[in-house]
Structures are given as structure tokens and as C-alpha cells.
Amino acid sequence: MKYSISNRKNLTILKLEDQVFDIRTAKPFRALIEEMLDGATTNHIIIDFSQVKAVDSCGISSMLLAHKIANQSEGLAIFVALCQQIKELLRIAGLDKQLYIFTSVNEVMTLIEPACKDRKGKKKSSKTSQIDEELPTPDVDEIAASDFADEEGIADEEEEDDEKDTVDNLDDEDEEDEDTARKKKKAASIKKRGRPKKTQ
């Protein structure tokens, strides 16, 4: 099987250079896909069919197998530049909606670049949110409990002050009663004695 491999913006491009993709290329094609996905930095492969002019049922099965192997590696097998005969066979087999088929490599790159940027942005935002989650936050329950304890302490102090004021007022009233009683007693004793007699 003739082929060439190139890289473009972190994507691996496998270009098939045989004009017929059939049972003779099925086995080496599968081995090549597994090898590329096993040691690659990316799990996405673009398979260029621009040189392929004919395909049989084994070739269609090989395309479906590449799709499944890429999915198992959490990647994509993207088929580009398919001739009309291959497109028609895929449509009849009901695989044209299952496989990732594009017109050219440039079309794929145009679609993938924004997706890569979005993915990088999501990674940054997820790291930021992770840092925010790791930062220690005060326990709301503990704060509420401490505030409640402070309020209770203030209330207790206010009650103690009120009790002291009440006791002081009672003491003042007792002292006033004693003073009043002394004055009354003194006035009564003066009345009993009467005015002092004049001495001749």
C-alpha cells in the first residue's frame, strides 16, 4: 500500500496514493491506523482519498474500522476528497451519516481551528474555577455561630447592667427612706419637748 504522512497544525494527515482501495490494502491499512493512533500526540487523523478512484466492500469496511479505532482512542477519523463512486457506496450502505466526510483538508482545518481555540479557552476557565474551588472559604455556619454567641454575650451583659441598675436604685430608695425616717423622728422629738423655757 502506497501512502504518505504529514502533519498540519497538530493533525496527522494520511494520504492514500493507490488508485484502488480494496481487499489488498485492508490489512496494512488497519495496521497503519492502529500504529498512528498508538504513538501519536493527537488522536485525530485526516485520511485523504484524493488519489483513490475505486473502492470495494473491503475498502468500505476498512473505512468503518478506522472510524471505530479512532473513536476507541477518543479521537476522530476524518475522510476527505472522496470520489463520487465512494460517496455513492457509503450512501447506499447508510454510512455517509456515520462517518466524518469533508470536501478537502482545508475545509477540515477551517472548522477545527475555532474548536481548538474554544477548547483552550475552556481549559483556562476550568483551571481558574479549580483554583477558586481550592482556595479556603470561611465556614458560614461557624461565622453565624460566632455572631450568635457575640449577640448572646452582649445580651447577657445588658441584662447584668440592668440588674445592677435595679439594685442600685433599690439601695438609693432604702437610703432615702432611712433619711426620711430620721427627719420625721427628729421632728417628733422636738414637738414633744416643746419650746425651751426662758430663764429669768
From TrEMBL:
Pfam families on file: STAS
Residue span of region Disordered: 119-200
Residue ranges, compositional bias (Acidic residues): 131-179
Record field: compositional bias (Basic residues): 182-200
UniProt domain STAS: residue ranges: 21-112
Example GO molecular function: anti-sigma factor antagonist activity
InterPro entries reported in the protein's UniProt record: STAS_dom (IPR002645), STAS_dom_sf (IPR036513)
UniProt name for this protein: STAS domain-containing protein
Species this protein is from: Prosthecochloris vibrioformis
